[in-house]
């Protein structure tokens, strides 16, 4: 080995964390470049959450407040550009990767093994397809996963030292996690399962500081619970409804579909590897028991959800914090790097194929259609909304209104001037979104509206307004098999909402 080669190897082994930070920075810049250059415009949930961010509160229609707070913070600093709306997501995933690195460092007293576990676990998490995909969009998953990682790391340090500051950090992180997504409530089952598997876990449950930490975390949710009390517990109603528990039947095919989807959430190589490793032997060390306890509860709960009703593949995301740590821990004990490199390469290629989907399909001569393009739901919205801009310019005193959450979110963001408080028209008293909760037509002080709809609603609008005029119908072709179409009406003379009664 040459002197130069020896020096570079020494530099890498002497400062592994610096190299890991360089990887994080490189992926962060690459993902931001994708957002800006593609460009990755707002998904309508992002535009919807941006509306929440205009009035920070302790709760919103369907989620706890953290995602709205984060968007309020990033847009207050950088403005309402699309990349600024999304910015908290790649930042939080990058920070979560650092926490995973620091967590895995504590798995062994052997410095070499600990460093390998840290590098492997952090890299597996950072290149996970779910993280690659979610880094382009701001969703509740970003703060959920970040605070899950932080809470677990603080718990691990508290378990080792019983230091009050680590218990405090675990409680604060747990509380902020609960304010990020209600799924965070699954995390404590990690410690219950750990107690069932390990004597050290059973000692944990005898520690009063553990229970004080749990109470501290729950206390963070109290303002959100009070907000829900003021709004008839609307968030919990929505959470129950999206699971479709009462209207669905048991389905093995849905469960298998969910499991197959997990191959593209965590990555096929690493998921198959830890599954085989887990089936081949029972956890032998205490750290293995703890990490499997971190993985199984979320994965099991969401599998049951998929079997009984419906579960999106990304809902199991927190389980792959434990899976990343498990894979890194097991791979650090192998002599070779083949599985690690193949797994990382496979995950990187999945992300690249998604990031550069248009370029890849163009190169292969594949026509993109509505049923095959992963960007189909966000494609073309800026151009589509701008087609309506002349009519909004002609009627500056008219308020944006619609019968669609999606249209209110997109028009609210892309129309000039922006209007994040569009008025919602609902045919009944059932509240289906945040606009209907906060800005229903029945409570609006406005009298004149520009009403946008994807349907011909002229006849319906005459029930609510004395004057209804169709201003324009605009269409934007996106694929050979799909075009966006909407109609814009000028309406005034609101008659009020009349509740229909049964005869």
UniProtKB/TrEMBL annotation:
It is a multi-pass membrane protein. The keyword Amino-acid biosynthesis does not apply. The keyword Glycosyltransferase applies. InterPro entries: LipidA_mod_glycosyltrf_83 (IPR050297), RgtA/B/C-like (IPR038731). The chain crosses the membrane at residues 20-44, 65-81, 87-104, 125-155, 167-197, 258-278, 290-309, 315-332, 339-358. Keywords: Cell membrane, Glycosyltransferase, Membrane, Transferase, Transmembrane, Transmembrane helix. This is Glycosyltransferase family 39 protein. Pfam families: PMT_2. It is found in: Cell membrane. It comes from the Bacteria. Residues 62-227 form the Glycosyltransferase RgtA/B/C/D-like domain.
